[in-house]
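Incident log entry.

Two folding requests arrived from the same account within the same minute. Monitoring flagged them as a possible duplicate submission, but the sequences differ. Recording both here for audit purposes.

Request one:
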Amino acid sequence: MGSHATDTPPADGDTGGPGSDDGFAGVLFDVFAGRCTSREALGHITGRWGILALGALSEGTYRFNALRRRVDGVSEKMLAQTLQALERDGFVLRKAEPTIPPRVEYSLTPLGREAAERLLNVIEWLEANMPEVMAARARYDQAKSAR
């Protein structure tokens, strides 16, 4: 949540901050700005399939079909697209072994582990508060039907 909505790399010669070698560490990102690239990455990790894939991968390395079974309800196409986006953003590592058939495994990068840890807190909080959510839904539905 930077103070301004820029996501262009710093000028030549600007190291971007301590330990930075990518040229982006000194850039301020603002997820609330519509054109900021951080919004796209936020969507990848907080979308329904992104948060579930990261949560599942926090349990360990998965092959594609095992991950698909763990994330019940996701289509093959949607999981493939989700994993590709998470890999591109640096959250997921895809390791393909040149065997027949190819053996492909997915795991979290250090950045992905950090994101998953934070997202798991939201998942755990939600699961713990579902009775309150269900009660609120019932009150809402009852009030809507009384109108």
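Request two (distinct sequence, not a duplicate):
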Amino acid sequence: MSRISVFSAPFLLGFESFEERIDRLARSADGYPPYNIERTAEPDGAERFIISIAVAGFAENELEVMTEDNQLSIRGKQKDEPGREFLHRGIAARQFQRTFLLADGMIVKDATLNHGMLVIALERPRVTKLARRIDIRSL
């Protein structure tokens, strides 16, 4: 049984890669680490987003924030110290990857780590609508 995609409509030209990205995001979704997303709208029409991710126990050099191909990826990998012996280990040295699909025009402003919270600031500037007349040539 094949599934029908909304992106296969004949009037959606050039959107094939979006379906692939959405499928990839759906496969990678799990509950760790927990996160919040906040949005504020500016009077000029711009939008600002704050993604807060709980990364307690991770140092700055154990986290990576990257954007590529309209995707924001956050990775965390803790290193086990070979000389440590745990009698009880309730806090696992767990790696993670959290991915967000970004709309065209989104800008990642910065990322800060403070008290176990990784905060990533994004902005979508107001986009001016552009209309253009296309001249028709006769052959």
